[in-house]
Amino acid sequence: MRGGAAAVKAGSRPPWLGLGAAVWLQVAGGGSSTFALYSHALKVALGADQRRLALLGVACDVGENLGLLPGVLCNRLHPALLLLVGAGACLLGYGAAWLLVSGVAPALPYWLIWFALTLAANGGAWLGTAVLVTNMRNFPLSRGAVAGILKGYSGLSAAVYTEIYTGVLRDSPTNLLLLLTLGIPAICLLAIYFVRPCEPSLVETNSEQVHFMFVQMASVLLGIYLVGATILDHVVTLNDIINYFLLSIMVLLIFAPLAIPLKMTLFPRSKNSATDNDQKESLLPSSSESNLNFEDEDSFDIDILLAEGEGAIKPEKRRPRRGEDFRFREAILKADFWLLFAIYFVGVGSGITVLNNLAQIGIAAGAADTTISLSIFSFCNFFGRLGGGAVSEYLVRARTLPRSLLIVCTQVVMIITYLLFALGQRATLYVSVALLGICYGVQFSVIISTSSELFGLKHFGKIYNFIALANPVGAFLFNTLTGYVYDLEVERQKAGMVDTDIACHGPNCFRLTFYVLSGAACLGTLLSTVLTVRVRPVYQMLYAGGSFSQPRNSGH
User: Which N-terminal stretch is annotated as signal sequence (predicted)?
Assistant: First the structure.
C-alpha cells in the first residue's frame, strides 16, 4: 500500500489514537535494551568469553540503528507495512535466541546468534521509524514533545520488561526471550490499524498542550511506579496474586494516553469550537498542500531531474538553507550533519556500551543482581528523554536557544559520571547509573528534534537514521576495548587458579575503559559546543515569534 493524500485520516481524534498506539509499540519494540537480562544465559550457552559476548551486544546496537532502509521506505510505504516487517524480524531474531537458550537447538553457531540478535533489534528500528516519523508529521508543531514522549516510552521499555521478568517470568531468560519472540509481533498486529498518516494539527491550541502534558505526566507516573515495583520485589517476597496485580496496574498506566481519544469520543467539542478552529486552520496550508504527501514530492523531484537532463529546463542553483527541507545528499554536505553524527558517536555510543555491560559492571562492583541497575537506568533514561524534549522546547520557544545546549550540559555530566564508574564501588554504582541514564536519554530526544529542525521533515527518516548509525559504530569500538580490558583482568585474576568462575571482580575490570569514555565525553563537550554556536542563528530565525515557523523552501 502506497502512501499518499488519499491515505490521510481527517479529524482531531485519529492523531491521538495513533500516538496512544505508538506508545505501546515503542515499549514493546525496546526489547534490545533487555540484553543485560539474558546476556549471561547466552554467554553460558555459547561458552563465550567477554569479548565475544560484548560483540553480541554490539549486534543489538547495529540492528537497532540500521534504520536507513525503513527511513527511505517510510516516504513510500504505509506505516502498517513497516510494522509488519518489524514484527517478522523480531519473531525470527528472538526466536533463534530462544531456541539456543532453551536447549531446543543447543548447537546453533555463534555467527547465527549474532545475526539473529541484529535482525531482532532491527525489527525495533522498523517499528520506531514507522511510529516516530508518522507521529512527528501528524503533530509538526510539537515535534519536540512528540519525540520526547515516544523516545521516553522507548526508554521505559527495559523497566517494563524487567518488571515482567522479575514478577511474572520468575527471572527466567528463556521465558523472557519467548515473550519477546511472540509478544512483540502480537502487539504490532493489534496496533497496526491505528498508526497512520492523519491530517496534521496546524494550529497550537490550549487543549493540545494540555493533552501533551497529560501524556507526559502519565509516563512519569509509569516510570516512578516501575522503579518502585522493582525495588519492592527485592525488599519483600511477593506472591503470584500481588505480582499479577502490580502487572495489571502497569498495563493500565501504559494505556493512559488512550484516555485522550476516549475523552474526545465521549465528550466531543461543540460545533462553535470546531468552527473557530476551522477558521484558524484555513489561514494555513491544507493537508493536501502540507508535508504529508512526500511520495508525490519525491516523484516530482525525479521529473525535474529528468527534465534538467534533457535540457527542457535549467536547474536551480540555490541550495536549501538550514531549517528548510534537505535531500539526503544535500544534508551530508553540511558540517552540522557530521557534528551531529560525531556527537551521537561519542554520547550515545559510549552510553550503550555501559548498558550492554551493565551485568558485568555490577558483578565487578559487588552487585550481582542486574535488575535494579537496569530499572534505574531505564527510568532515568526515560526521564532524560522526556525531560530533554520538554526542556529543549522551553529553550527554543522562550529563549531561542538551540536544543544542543542541553547536549553540552549532559556531556559535562558524563565526564564526571564515567570517573565515578571508574571507582568500581557499589556505593557509587547506582548514582552513576542514574546520571548516565539521564544524560543518555537527553541526547537521544534532543538529537532527533535538532536534526528535524535543521534539515526538515521531508527526508527526516533517511537523515536521522543515517546519523543513528554513529551509535553502533561507537558501540563497536568502545565494546571492543571494554571486552579486551575485561578479559585481560580475568586472566590476571585467574592465573594459577583452578576456578570455573568466568566473571571479573574489582575496580580494575573496567577502570581503564571508563577513563577512555571520560576522555571521549570531553571531546563530545567540545563538539556540541561548536554545534550550538553554529546553529544559534538558525533557531533565532525559526523561533523568532515564540513558536516554530517553517521557512519557505523556494529551492524545491
Answer: none
| Eight-state DSSP code of residue 440 | H
Contact 79, 193 (CB under 8 A): no
Task: Note whether 205 and 15 are within 8 A (CB).
Answer: no
Q: Give the whole-angstrom CA distance, residue 44 versus residue 184.
A: 26
Q: How far apart are CA 121 and CA 180, in angstroms?
A: 11
Length of the chain: 556
What is this structure's pTM?
0.72
Question: Smallest Cα–Cα separation from 405: which of 368, 438, 369, 446?
Answer: 446
Please state, in angstroms and rounded to a whole number, the distance separating the CA atoms of residues 228 and 179.
23
Taking the CA of residue 520 as centre, how many other CA atoms within 13 Å lie in the half-sphere pointing to its CB? Answer: 23
Coil vs helix vs strand at 9: strand
- Cα–Cα dist 213/229, whole Å: 24
**CA nearest neighbour of 478 among 347, 296, 289, 308:** 347
pLDDT digits (tens, 9 = 90+) for 426-451: 889 999 999 999 999 898 888 888 88
The span from the CA of 420 to the CA of 412, in Å, is 13
Q: How do residues 30-50 score in pLDDT, each as one tens digit?
A: 888 888 889 889 988 988 887
Written as nine digits, the cell of 486 is: 575485561
